[in-house]
């Protein structure tokens, strides 16, 4: 048990004994304050013990020699800022000359033990400055998202990272993503979390779920289109490609580049278009991609090739037309056939839940960061929903989504069903809601949300 928790328990127990009536946050803040004092008091000796100090300057050593004085002590990196967070502390440190952020990252395990913290993560914030995020307890054991997060249109808080930060799925920054994981590793919960968070936003949600629609059909009231068989999926993808081409025409028309158009008004994607003609963005979520890519007969192979071609085109050109992809699967390697590695290269957001073998982890992170491959293999079976996430920059972190039940996702989709945009190109794939004529839609919160 970490220092913060022990401190909070002792202080909380004392408070109960003395009948000090204070809210829980008061004691948490008090505990974090005591932990930060402890970190500050032991800081110099811990940095020294973890080999994060540098020797005194040559000038001071020379002066000490001249005057036959004791050798000056090593220089400890300076603390620039200490911030108490909801989950622990963040120390911003000015590195000493000759140091690099990698030394701090390599020493993070030693720092964790020395400061008595649960987790220490080092990250370079700018040249010469490194930030140590310290957490006092296992954040991923029972995930609790902060009440306020910096989300927005097409930027949703999807999980907590083990350094106490919030992990976002930011569609405009990372338009397309691949999520892998063995069976029962937590992919569907992750997907539900995204759909639930996107449901209140002005976006069109489109689903392909060739597992007979078991995951996405219950969310149909908020889906603008849904395909549950490979044949439907092909039609839906080709209709999306058609929509994308239509949007490109609109952008091209609106560019009207001439000498008197100001630079800021020239656009190459939907976000630069005037709001009244801007097409609604589309998030396409594909559950179990192998169902689309695996074939048994020659006829199926033709269909599969057309599906993969449409997917590659959407991944290559969809961003400018406001079409974003979320692809889920157990594996995503060359065994799924031609074009799969080309498609994978376009899916720059990568998340891997627990995987069964190293090659699955390599499919997610082999081209991004070897450390992430190792971290993905180490995810234990006991914590479904835990995943490693990385992007094209090579940075990665361990995350876990808050548990979202199917009932919670269904309720969110039903509550926001009125926001479902009607996309004419995808009209043929609009899910039928199975309502008898004259029968009202089921009560939105007809069943209480499971805990
Ligand atoms: N973040 C989470 N927190 C707590 N429990 C979770 C979390 N994610 C998943 N689980 C639990 O793990 C189990 C498997 O989750 P899920 O159905 O999402 O896995 P999956 O990878 O989609 O499996 P499959 O591929 O077989 O459909 C479920 O019982 C679910 O409740």
Give a verbal description of the structure.
This protein is of the alpha/beta class and 451 residues long. It has helices at 3-17, 24-49, 58-66, 101-106, 108-115, 187-198, 230-255, 290-293, 298-317, 340-346, 358-365, 370-377, 406-415, and strands spanning 78-84, 88-94, 119-126, 129-135, 155-161, 166-170, 176-180, 204-209, 223-227, 282-287, 323-329, 349-352, 386-390, 396-400. The protein folds into 2 domains: 3-135, Threonyl-tRNA Synthetase, Chain A, domain 2 (2-Layer Sandwich); 155-429, Rossmann fold (3-Layer(aba) Sandwich). The chain contains 13 helices and 14 strands. Mean pLDDT is 86; it is low at 438-451. Bound molecules: adenosine-5'-triphosphate (ATP). Residues 181, 183-189, 384-385, 400-401, 403 line the site of adenosine-5'-triphosphate. Adenosine-5'-triphosphate (ATP) is lined by residues 181, 183-189, 384-385, 400-401, 403.
């Amino acid at each position: 048990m970490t220092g913060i928790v022990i401190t909070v328990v002792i202080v909380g127990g004392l408070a109960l004994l003395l009948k000090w009536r204070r809210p829980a946050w008061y004691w948490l803040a008090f505990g974090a304050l005591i932990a930060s004092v402890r970190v500050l008091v032991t800081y110099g000796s811990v940095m020294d013990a973890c080999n994060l100090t540098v020797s005194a300057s040559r000038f001071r050593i020379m002066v000490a020699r001249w005057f036959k004085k004791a050798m000056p002590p090593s220089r400890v990196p300076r603390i620039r800022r200490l911030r108490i967070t909801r989950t622990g502390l963040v120390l911003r440190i000015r590195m000493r000359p000759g140091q690099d952020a990698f030394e701090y990252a390599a020493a993070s395990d030693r720092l964790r033990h020395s400061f008595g913290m649960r987790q220490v993560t080092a990250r370079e914030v700018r040249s010469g400055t490194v930030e140590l995020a310290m957490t006092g307890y296992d954040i991923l054991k029972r995930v609790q998202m902060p009440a306020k997060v910096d989300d927005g249109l097409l930027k949703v808080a999807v999980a907590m990272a083990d350094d106490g930060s919030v992990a976002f799925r930011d569609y405009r920054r990372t338009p397309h993503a691949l999520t892998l994981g063995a069976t029962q590793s937590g992919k569907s919960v992750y997907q539900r979390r995204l759909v639930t968070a996107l449901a209140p936003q002005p976006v069109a949600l489109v689903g392909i779920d060739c597992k007979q629609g078991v995951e996405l059909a219950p969310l149909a009231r908020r889906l603008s289109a849904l395909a549950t068989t490979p044949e439907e999926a092909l039609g839906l993808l080709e209709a999306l490609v058609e929509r994308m081409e239509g949007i490109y025409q609109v952008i091209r028309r609106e560019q009207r580049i001439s000498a008197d158009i100001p630079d800021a008004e020239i656009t190459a994607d939907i976000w630069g278009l005037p709001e009244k003609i801007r097409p609604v963005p589309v998030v396409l979520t594909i559950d179990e991609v192998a169902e689309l890519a695996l074939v048994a007969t020659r006829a199926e192979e033709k269909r599969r090739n057309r599906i993969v071609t449409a997917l590659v085109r959407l991944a290559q050109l969809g961003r400018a037309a406001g079409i974003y992809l979320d692809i889920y699967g157990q594996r995503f390697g060359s065994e799924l056939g031609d074009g799969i590695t080309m498609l994978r290269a376009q899916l720059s957001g990568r998340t891997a839940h627990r995987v069964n073998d190293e090659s699955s982890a390599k499919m997610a992170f082999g081209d991004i960061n070897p450390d992430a491959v190792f971290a993905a293999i180490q995810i234990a079976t006991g914590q479904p929903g835990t995943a490693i996430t990385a992007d094209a920059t090579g940075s990665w972190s361990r995350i876990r989504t808050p548990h979202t039940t199917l009932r919670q996702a269904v309720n969110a989709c039903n509550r926001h069903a009125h926001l479902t945009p009607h996309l004419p190109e995808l009209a043929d794939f609009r899910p039928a809601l199975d309502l008898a004529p004259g029968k009202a839609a089921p009560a939105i919160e007809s069943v209480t949300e499971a805990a």
